[in-house]
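Re: that chain you flagged

S.,

Sorry for the slow reply, it's been a week of failed gels. I finally had a moment to sit down with the sequence you sent. For the record, here it is as I used it:
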Amino acid sequence: MKKFLIFILALVAFEYFLSSCAGIASPGGGPRDTTVPELDTSYPPNFSLNFNSKEITLIFNEYITLKNANQQIMLSPLTDEKLEIKSRAKVVTIELPDTLLENTTYTLSFGSSITDFTEGNVNDKFKYIFSTGDFIDSLLLSGNITDAFTNEPVKEMLVALYELEQTDSLNLDSLPYKRIPTYYTYTDELGYFKLEYLKYGRFMFLAFNDKRGNFKLNTGNEEMAIYTELINMTDSIEPLRLKSFKPLANRRFYGARLKEKGKVQLSFSQPVPDIEVERIFPTREVNRDSVFIELNENKDTLFYWFEDNGLDSIKLKVSGYENIDDTNLVRIIDYESPELSLDVADTEIKSGESIKINANLPVTKIDSSKIYLYDSQDTIPFSVEFKARPAKEFLIKPAAYPSNMSLSLLEGAVKGFFNTESDSLKSSLRTLKGEDLGNLKFIVVADSVQDYVLIMTNPTGKEVVNESFRGYLTIDLKRKKPGEYKAYIIKDRNRDGKWTPGSFIDKRLPESVIYYQDKIEIRANWDIELEWKVKEP
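Prediction finished late last night. Pasting the structure tokens below so you have them in one place:
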């Protein structure tokens, strides 16, 4: 066998020498080569038993290129030492570590690293299998992972299987933090995975995003998919159907920093809808018109706007939500003052609605004498609704609703933080009449003993329905803009009115989300009635 190997290697080297002199290139003309490189010879042979070699030599039937070999070529079970991988012409050599386990079946996966030299065709199916014992383990565990909220496939997630010793039963929660998995693979583009050549035994399953590439949980906040029971590997294991989720982080205030002039960003690990922020330094009275507080859409980031007035620092106290009680000193940096800009939120409004104006800075004053609303015939009286001062939006309520009208704000019509004034703004508006709008009656029929939450969104993605129910629910959407709406329900196991992710520590699966699969289209001047009989997927 050794003489044969030396002969093969010499032949390949000679071939490589000739091709190097002539240059390797694709032949001109003819059909494109679509065949992938295939293994021609290996030493030791694939599926070898009682394996004790220090090196594997693979010879392919054509010239190849290894791409991202260190990331793509994986040995399972894992070893503490890295593989030494070399490639030349048709030959790949892999130097193995000295720490291979006895009586163990190993799988050497190549991912998408093996490509042919000329066309880049990828052989992503090839695996090299060997056993340090008398037989090849043959058990299989497969399945797929989809996102628990969107139901979309989750790709490139590490799928880990941990063999359990007798003493591990008391410390299962710490295993993924301390130990690399016994077997592992990654999900493909469609979220599928397959662990092959497994041995009999008792295992713990966990899949997670291994962003640091160390095969371990690092924070416990990584996106993950759990299987709540231990797995006893036998001849018949049904494919797993798993849902991934991002666990709720421990309640924590990360801190505050100056984002831009007069704008402090306060970040939290979870949504904080009831948080309170108070300035405690400088201690002088703060004018309410000089402070504005807003939460982002996810409610996990708060922005504290203030008129800095030459301050060099401020201290903020954060309190009022889930026992958060903290203070932060924020140093003031001399940022350039921003400009105040405005835009019309929607140029199509329904009769009776107000025109919404958004601002990028907190607004402190509005001069109605510099605002004009008119149609082709005359000006239209209006009122300005500006209840909170300051605010980042205000409303203009027309006294009449012609089919078409124009809005004009002169320069300086709006004043904002940092002594800013708005530039002029002009916009054409259209009034939607009854015949421009549609009505939808949406009936949901579900399990009468299960708690659900129905969510519906409009064509812009804005939530228009959020209703908890059991068994039966009727929603009437009147005079809505035409377009495609979407609906889904949450199986609200804990009855908190929102979707709840899973927990690895508590062995709790994420709440299920079921989407209405048919099209919900509201049409102008139409009355539509739809019924959704919810079926568990």
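What I noticed first: The CA atoms of residues 187 and 525 lie 47 Å apart.

Talk soon,
D.
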